[in-house]
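[SOLVED] Need 3D model of a two-part complex

Original post:
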Amino acid sequence: MSPQLLDLVLGVTLIPLGLLAYLVATERVVGVIERDRHSWLRAWVWLTPSFVLIAGVLIYPLLKTLYLSFFDASSTGYVGLRNYKAIFSDPTLISVLKVNLLWIVLFPLGAVALGLATALLFDRVRYEKVAKAIIAMPIAVSFVAGSVMWRLIYTYNAPGTEQIGTLNAFLKALIPGFVPKAWLIDSRYNNYALILVGIWMGTGLATLILSAALKGVPRELIEAARIDGANEWHVFRIVIFPELVPALAVVTTVSVIAAIKVFDIVYVMTGGNYKTDVIATKMYSEQFAFQNTGLACAIAIVLLLAVTPVLVANRGVLRREEHA
Amino acid sequence: MKRKRGGVLAVVAAAAALATYVGIQTGTGGAAPTRAGDVTFPPASVAAATKAALRITHGKKLGGSADFLGVVTGGPADALTAALKPFEDATGVKVDYEATFSQQSILQTRIQAGNPPDVVFSSYPVQLQQLARQGKLVPLNGVVDMTAVAKQYPKALLDLGTVNGKLYAYFSIVNYHGLIWFNPNKYTGPRKGTWAQLTSWSQGMAAQGRTPWCLGIESGAATGWPAANELVDALFVRKYGAALATQWEQGKLKWTSPQVRWAWQTFGSIFTNPKMVAGGAAAIASTNFLAAGNGLFSSPATCFLLAQEQWYGEFAPALVQGVKPTDVAYFRFPSITPKYKDLQMVDGNQIALLRNRAQGKALVAYMATPEFETLLAESGQFLVPNSSVSHNVYPTPLARNIAKVLVSPRAQKVTIMVPSVLFPVPVTNQFFKDLTAYIQNPNQLDSLLRDMDSVAAASR
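Solution:
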């Protein structure tokens, strides 16, 4: 038996058996103490393995990352806040933050607006299910596969040669005298081209969530508004939209988080070249290409801090939903 | 075929691309499974390799296994594992070959975790030197036949694996750089001579409205390497020679120095001029390096010259539609300073030993034998720098020609590494990135070179 196979067998047998042994053993002890009605004890005993796991794979790495972010590239010399200062003062890192800001604004805007529009329009047609299935298809495509596909769509060939990229070939056929564009290279529009890929992938989920919320709007309310003489715009603005706000908030926060931590699309399509680097690709390249562990950890912490408020807001929205 | 150079990212992208070239699907990073290949060798070579393996273990069956960590995948990995088969059969040692595109970080992690592989097949000479200094490698003196090794490998390559007078690593395979490819049916310019002559021919073509050069640098996260390795490095070495290249690699010669600036500017005078390169800056950036030379064969040709490694001569007839082997030929990168015109540039993969176990030691000793390296050469997937391997064993005329030059006694004295491979990893990666930016906007040369200096200073 190879060592890897042995590890695997031990892993799938020892871990559950160990856990079981732990529960049986502690249960005996708890059983004795429980007579004093310490019902909270059993809960903590059962929760402990999960806490240990979370502490091991989440809390410890987080604290270690925070610790390392105060050290230099080789994690040997203490540098204080230097890595954090660099993030907000180094021109290349500032341009990375600007690109991320563009993602944070445009990606949720595009995905939510398109998701809302498709959800509303599909609600009015007979073939809604088919249409929704089509718009939701990109959800099933991994970000890497989708990015590879879009790279082929955006492919640029020099003017005068055959255009292999779908977009340039299409535009050339449509517009006489069209000069092919290097969509992913020209920094005037390459970030928009990348964000569009994100929107293509993100719209499906937005549509599904918003469409589900739309089904929850009471039909009688809409009917009543129509009978009272409201036109369709008013029905949407006054009746439907307020009912959709919680779902919109969820979709928006999820999209904002996706925009803050976007990695795959940029990494696969441009490798962060041509001024398309975002925080996550920068973190990756600082660690693996430039071996600057300190800076990479500081970027990771900044990324975490940027996501946290959105995450908290998202939790808040969900909680209100539950209580509503 | 082979792997690609400096930097984790370089390997990720290029290995994927090259694996695609040989038509084998690979994993997407991490450990890629090794496939049992259908590589066949002449029986006499296999018998000789078996004998060599038995000689190392004095006919004893060692048994057990050896962990072998490498970067080659797909067809080359099949050839490598097939060439290890005689060793496994003769010694009873099972070789567990594991390929990864992130070798550098995986090796570091495994060493830190106290679980290093027995043997590593590495494309990072600088990392191996560091590991040797840290005492993480087992010296090969006494493990391999030192007299034979000293005789069969170029000294410059052995020096790269030598730390404090002890040998820790030797190059088992190499890639040959400094070649310029053309289509003999279309190209009418100079095939010998100087860079100045080639430049003046290029200018003449540009004046006629025909773009003389092909260039494509897209290679995923390693975008930029073809311009760095095949052009800027080559220009620098031909102009300033090996000694100054070493200073540059070690950070003693600044990127803002007149010499390095000359190499960038000379590169820029051609490759940032849209009249000189097919498609101009946007096409250079968006064309994958594997498709860069397609213009050599189109009708009419859109470009006439392509700087690329030796594999291009096998790649184009195999994978570019309608290209015959007779449509591809090369000349060596032309002379700039006459005394440096014969320097031949390579990069490659080194074998090093990390654990002091009999199985690993026997494996390393086997891989240093001409019998094993003959199998690698016969597979047609590798170029071996071992002068005891006859160039006649390579399957194609092109490989035979290059191998003949590579291992000739005279050439062995002038073999050096491509500078990009010997920079610290962050410097190599920044070099690719900044050169890519330079092609898009040549006006920022000063700030890019200053940027390179600061990365080089931080990496020392």
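Edit: The longest helix of chain A spans residues 91-122.
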